[in-house]
Predict the structure.
Amino acid sequence: MESTRPDGTRRRFLKGTALAVVPYALLPSTRAGADAQAVDYPLAEWRPASTSNYTVSNRPAAYPLDYVVIHVTQVTYAGALSIFQNPKKKVSAHYVVRSADGHVAQCVREADIAWQAGNWDYNTRSIGIEHEGWVDQPAWFTDALYERSAALTAAICTKYGIPKDRAHIIGHYEVPGTDHTDPGPNWDWTRYIRLVNFA
């Protein structure tokens, strides 16, 4: 029969190990610190795009920010994040908004140039926001998606002095030279601009 009394040597070892670990346990993790620093919009989660899918910059010093470009993913939220993280795709957006609850992911820093508009001039001068859903399925455009996206757009416009109007908050289809149709005819622009202005 084994003794139920703890071994003195083992106890000293465990105490020493615990004391050695405590200082590190009290420090924030590197990942947590990196995530907090990377997010430009406080309500966003940092989900970085591959560095192969955007251009590092120093906006607005390098390029003025004049537009917010509204997109629809044509894939799920998870699918969009996966595409942006794939270095072979050569595409990204600054933000992705989830349909069900309006959760916001940031994929590219606002200072950097996301490859989202299909027009280099517009890429350099805009922030791109993707919205989970399909242009021909309006059920994806939930109240939560509209409200959270509008709050994000309002914050971006306020931060960079972008007017909160349809001349500066544009659809992907309005970018010169694009062949895209998003956000499509089911996107309620009147409602969206009203929400942006009341956010």
Notes: The two ends are 71 Å apart (CA to CA). The first strand starts at residue 44 and ends at 46.
